[in-house]
Amino acid sequence: xxxxxxxxxxxxxxxxxxxxxxxxxxxxxxxxxxxxxxxxxxxxxxxxxxxxxxxxxxxxxxxxxxxxxxxxxxxxxxxxxxxxxxxxxxxxxxxxxxxxxxxxxxxxxxxxxxxxxxxxxxxxxxxxxxxxxxxxxxxxxxxxxxxxxxxxxxxxxxxxxxxxxxxxxxxxxxxxxxxxxxxxxxxxxxxxxxxxxxxxxxxxxxxxxxxxxxxxxxxxxxxxxxxxxxxxxxxxxxxxxxxxxxxxxxxxxxxxxxxxxxxxxxxxxxxxxxxxxxxxxxxxxxxxxxxxxxxxxxxxxxxxxxxxxxxx
Length: 312
Known about the structure:
Layout: H1 9-17, E1 21-26, H2 62-77, E2 81-86, H3 96-107, E3 112-119, H4 126-136, E4 140-148, H5 152-157, H6 164-176, E5 180-187, H7 194-205, E6 211-216, E7 219-220, H8 224-230, H9 239-252, E8 258-261, E9 271-273, H10 280-293, H11 302-307
Parallel strand pairs: 1-2, 2-3, 3-4, 4-5, 5-6, 6-8
Antiparallel strand pairs: 7-9
Helix pairs in contact: 7-9, 9-10
């Protein structure tokens, strides 16, 4: 029997729930402290006005979003159960009372077996963490924290609005309450080369993190990154380079960490570059090929990295 290349989310959810479970992307109509002025304005350089979301909150309640998405996912994937994924902007950036009402509305659907809550490390007060802790005791809960890079110089250059230390504090607060953490990282950020990207893997591999979501940096229309790209100040990774880095990245992670995704899903009408980012199956195949060619699998270099964290 061949060794699996990595521990994928679908398999992990099937092991837990005994059936096919799909995530439903939800837009709760919240915003972000990096947009409303409390931390910054304009958001991260790669983020557009929708905040990686759909804008559905403008016309649909969470209940209606779930109803419509369930029907589509049942047809496409034969999914039996679902996880409500609060995706757009920062989904812990509101009062505890408002957040509780939103989470409870999603959980009211009998086919929703848990929540995935996307947010920023600097949007997790003690009160919010306590709310998440209470939810975690009654349902499946994944706290998805956007980090992107462990390098403060990168976080500053992409206008992230928080430091790596803020992420460390957020993870510590969540894990004290036994809340599972999924970290989001982006490969191909301005100013980062292969060494910086793999250093992110090494650092995160040593933290108490249960899952990771790997994204390709792609250029979205109307963002600060779009302007930088048009001026010639940013060059996208090509598919071969990205696949090679993902293969090496996975090899450095602990084998039990769940891999939520290997790349992103840009909206076709928003994407400027690279156009190959739309070819999801080809991109996965390129990553698998890179792993096979280099005889790599998730966790292969994890123990060696612990002994020599410099990677030398």
